[in-house]
Design goal:
The chain is built from ten helices and twelve strands. By secondary structure, the chain is an alpha/beta fold. The protein has two domains: 178 residues, Response regulator (Rossmann fold); 135 residues, Rossmann fold, CATH 3.40.50. Strands 2-1-3-4-5-11 form a six-stranded parallel sheet, with helices on both faces. A six-stranded mixed sheet has the order 7-6-8-9-10-12, sandwiched between helices. The longest helix has 16 residues. It is elongated.
Length: 365
């Protein structure tokens, strides 16, 4: 990810349940393991009898693939200049290909707001049935979402939240506060019986709301473990280079600690380089986001990296399922409501050596 660009994760996403800090996102929220997030969407139905689904190629749950009303879904996202964003596009494309009744019209993607607005306006002019939009800048794209909704095209706002709830029919995103909470709980359980345990934090870009939320979730979790102290925090920039440089500084300043919470697996690649160069093996590391490289390292169990907390790019596959259901006038299986929810927040599962094989198909490069 370019040094000064917005990170692959939501730069304005609102976390988890309404009680969580910083969240004003409306609507019904759902939690579930990242791999099973789309299980909520299994068997998208109207009044049709349910049948067993054909398993997806990667064995993850998939919605009812029986042909229904044909739906054209417009998909607009930012430029895929980061592994997570590229995985977002791939998950959307692969999901759409599972349906014979879905046509996916995907833009090239751009980090330039004016360009992305123009791309979405083209999709509106084509009169697509549903729009899925991952904005380069949620606030800047709000008026475009409003315009689509006014034109009668329902919008699914993916990850980076619009400034107005009226700009979309449904929000689908990850849980930044929940990432920190899950990381803190995992580390807390590992160290709860160690007197005087110390932890450090390698955060993301401090000017971003998502970084603040991840730190806040982490700190809130650690409050449940009074014997554990966070002794240092260093902000990086979601890049390999910054991860290596900032981790080297942490290692020099902190000659002894027991655990590290790193916000992003891309910068974690650099962090692991710094750890190896320093010859340190005296602590455990928890990463963030769910990169394939992190999962491979966890499975190999040959480094300090023992877990990563997901920010699942499978959310775009869920968005395609929801868009199809919207276009066909259906609800989703597993809940009583006749309509799709107003909001779907994915759970930040912790991937460890014990469950890594389940999550490997979701790991992004």
């Amino acid at each position: 990810m370019p040094k000064n660009s917005a990170p692959a994760h939501s730069d304005s996403a609102r976390p988890g349940p309404a009680a969580r800090p910083g969240n004003t996102r409306r609507g019904l929220l759902f939690g579930g393991a990242a791999v099973s997030a789309t299980a909520l969407l299994a068997a998208c139905t109207s009044n049709e009898p349910t049948t067993k689904d054909t398993p997806a190629a990667d064995s993850r749950p998939t919605a009812d693939t029986r042909p229904g009303k044909k739906v054209t879904i417009g998909f607009a996202g930012p430029q895929a200049d980061h592994g997570w964003l590229n995985a977002i596009n791939e998950n959307a494309r692969n999901r759409a290909e599972k349906y014979t009744d879905v046509t996916l019209d995907m833009t090239e993607g751009s980090n330039d707001t004016a360009t992305q607005i123009g791309q979405i306006q083209t999709l509106i002019n084509k009169k697509v049935d549903v729009l899925v939009i991952l904005p380069a800048d949620g606030r800047a794209l709000t008026q475009t979402g409003l315009a689509a909704m006014k034109a009668g095209i329902p919008v699914i706002n993916l990850d980076r939240a619009f400034a107005s709830p009226q700009a979309s029919r449904c929000y689908v995103g990850g849980d930044n506060y929940g990432m920190g909470l899950s990381a803190g709980r995992y580390i807390g359980e590992k160290l709860k019986n160690k007197p005087g345990a110390k932890v450090v934090e390698l955060a993301g870009v401090d000017s971003l709301e998502l970084t603040r939320l991840r730190t806040q979730g982490f700190d809130d979790a650690l409050r449940n473990y009074p014997g554990i102290a966070k002794v240092a925090r260093q902000a990086a920039e979601f890049t390999v280079e910054s991860g290596q440089a900032k981790m080297a500084q942490l290692l020099q300043a902190q000659p002894q600690f027991d655990a590290l919470w790193n916000h992003d697996d891309d910068q974690g690649v650099g962090a692991l380089r710094a750890v190896a160069q320093a010859g340190r093996k005296d602590f455990l590391m928890v990463g963030g986001a769910g990169a394939r490289s992190a999962m491979d390292a966890i499975k190999a169990d040959d480094s300090v990296l023992k877990a990563t907390v997901l920010y699942p790019p499978t959310m775009s596959a869920s968005a395609i399922d929801l868009a199809r259901a919207l276009g066909q006038g259906k609800g989703i299986g597993g809940i009583a409501e006749l309509e799709i929810p107003a909001s779907l927040t994915l759970y930040s599962a912790v991937v460890t050596r014990d469950n890594v094989d389940d999550y490997l198909p979701t790991g992004f490069k």
